[in-house]
Specification:
heterodimer, A: six-stranded mixed beta sheet, 35% helix, B: mainly alpha, MetI-like fold, 10 helices, globular
């Protein structure tokens, strides 16, 4: 079992008094699964990805990664676990003045010694590897360009190329398509899915494109107000489910759900 | 004067006025205490003394022998500043890497650092404060007693004080740069130093370099001041000329000084352009 969450609640920034970002999440995810994470803005998609990546400590509940609770092991042990997963934030965290080759090769840093990292800054140690990671994204001619010369979409795909370099067994990708046009979106998604399948890695992708989520992923998880409100095979999801998931907060709400919605209006949107 | 209608009234205005008044009230006793009386500069006696001293500046001394001596001491000063800066960097870089919270792994996920690493960070911070709170002139005076007259005392004095300053400002520059790149690498399991090299350094390299060059410029100035207490270099020559009231020699040395600072400035500008 890659992930097992039982009634996991998470607060923003791990601060004691802030509002809950995730409430009582219960989930199991097997190795090699490909899952789309959908839900309205501020539903807690990013928080869930961060929790899965050990970048946010759960406040309550039982969280297990590779059948271990990472927050019970030492900081070093937890950090070793982190090198087995790859978290790609929505805005690719690439320094503007870095060259693409270094930005991509940085995906291999957990495996490199500090000396190798330093040497690669002077002269890239494995430019061929970076080149091969850029080819599926059609960015190979930008190998020695600087990151700030890239467009938003190119930067996003450059961040994905870093994921291909990493030795991760889990990809946690936050809205990889937010800066891409529809054609590129499908291509990029296919590259990620092929890569994950070829190394039997788990792929969890948060998406705003509901149609892509339903057509490309076997399993879809829907979040709303920090709760899992939908978790099923994508073939079993109806348009009604989607409409309920994305229903505007100010629309008319049936009596039974009123309570849960009103108590969460104080939640700070965090996406 | 027209009064602004109530709904356009800037809510920050009153607070700004109050802050201004408070600043003035605090500043006034300080000026009195510091015996700040600028008008003394302009009474007849001072003006005449200034005039006499300034006229002796012209023409600057330019005998070949003197110029050779100035060139030699200038080189000694630059060597002192550079050697001191190198030693300071050797201490400052590791201390910066320890002191910056940005590179903490234990804070990931909780926002709180582990207790012993926090203690280590705090100890390094205190060490940096200790090093920079003693002025380099005081270090130099102490060291002249220990290692004797000459540039060695100046080099060690610069190394100690500047180590503290560089470490503090480097840490501040790193903390104020964009955290996302470094955090992204740390969250994916890279080591602290690698995350620093690939996440923080590209974003803050030009600021770090320009501050280092500026500090080198300060070190040149500092080494001159330390020359007055016998630590060698241009300062010692300047001290001798001052005591002999040789304004022409002083003028030459000050001109050399302006050239040195201008050079440091253009080196800094060049390096910044390169790193842009």
């Amino acid at each position: 079992m890659t992930f097992h969450l039982a009634s996991v609640s998470v607060r923003h920034d791990g601060a004691a008094q802030s509002a809950f970002a995730l409430r009582e999440i219960t989930l199991s995810i097997q190795q090699g699964e490909q899952i789309a994470l959908i839900g309205p803005s501020g539903a807690g998609k990013t928080s869930l990805l961060h929790t899965l990546a050990c970048a946010l400590k759960p406040d309550a509940g039982n969280f297990r990664l590779f059948d271990k609770n990472p927050w019970e092991s030492s900081s070093t042990g937890r950090h070793a676990l982190r090198s087995r997963l790859f978290l790609a934030p929505q805005t690719p965290p690439l320094p503007p003045r870095q060259r693409v080759v270094n930005a991509v090769l940085a995906g291999a840093l957990p495996q490199w010694s500090v000396w190798q990292a330093m040497r690669s800054l002077i002269k890239p140690v494995d430019p061929a590897r970076a080149y091969e990671a850029l080819v599926p994204f059609n960015l190979q001619d930008k190998l020695y360009a600087r990151v700030d010369r890239l467009s938003g979409g190119e930067r996003q795909r450059c961040g994905m190329a870093r994921a291909l370099i990493s030795q991760a067994e889990i990809f946690l990708v936050d809205e990889p398509l937010s800066a891409l046009d529809p054609t590129l979106s499908i291509q990029t998604l296919q590259v990620l899915q092929r890569e994950a399948a070829s190394r039997n890695a788990t792929l969890i992708c948060s998406l705003h494109q509901v149609e892509l989520a339903r057509s490309h992923f076997a399993r879809v998880i829907g979040l709303r107000d920090g709760r899992v409100v939908l978790d099923s095979a994508s073939s079993a999801i109806t348009d009604d489910d989607i409409a309920t998931l994305y229903r505007n907060r100010h629309d008319v709400i049936p009596e039974s759900e009123q309570a849960s919605v009103t108590d969460s209006t104080s939640a700070i949107p965090h996406c | 004067m027209t009064t602004t209608p109530a709904h356009l009234h800037d809510p920050a205005w009153n607070r700004r006025i109050t802050a201004c008044i408070i600043a003035l009230v605090i500043l006034w006793p300080m000026l009195v205490m510091a015996e700040f009386k600028p008008w003394i500069l302009f009474d007849a006696q001072s003006l005449q003394a200034t005039w006499q001293f300034l006229t002796s500046f012209f023409p600057p001394a330019h005998s070949l022998e003197f110029l050779y001596m100035v060139a030699y001491s200038t080189w000694e000063t630059i060597a002192m500043a550079t050697a001191g800066m190198t030693l300071a960097l050797l201490g400052a870089i590791p201390m910066t890497l320890i002191a910056t919270e940005r590179l903490s792994i234990s804070r990931l996920g909780t926002g709180r650092m582990a207790r012993c690493s926090m203690l280590l960070r705090q100890i390094v911070r205190w060490l940096l404060i200790l090093l920079r709170s003693v002025p380099e002139l005081v270090w130099a005076l102490l060291l002249v007693r220990i290692v004797g007259l000459g540039p060695t005392a100046g080099v060690i004095a610069i190394a100690l004080t500047y180590c503290g300053m560089l470490g503090k400002v480097y840490a501040d520059i790193i903390e104020s740069s964009d955290p996302s790149a470094c955090d992204g690498l740390l969250r994916n399991g890279s080591g602290r130093l690698s995350a620093f090299l690939y996440g923080t350094l590209p974003a803050s390299a030009s600021e770090l370099v320009s501050y280092t060059v500026y500090r080198w410029e300060c070190a040149i100035r500092g080494s001159v001041v330390m020359g007055f207490v016998g630590a060698g270099g241009l300062g010692q020559r300047m001290d001798e000329s001052m005591k002999m009231l040789a304004g022409d020699e002083l003028a030459t040395m000050l001109l050399v000084f302006i050239v040195l600072v201008a050079c440091a400035d253009s080196v800094s500008a060049m390096l910044r352009r390169r790193l842009e």
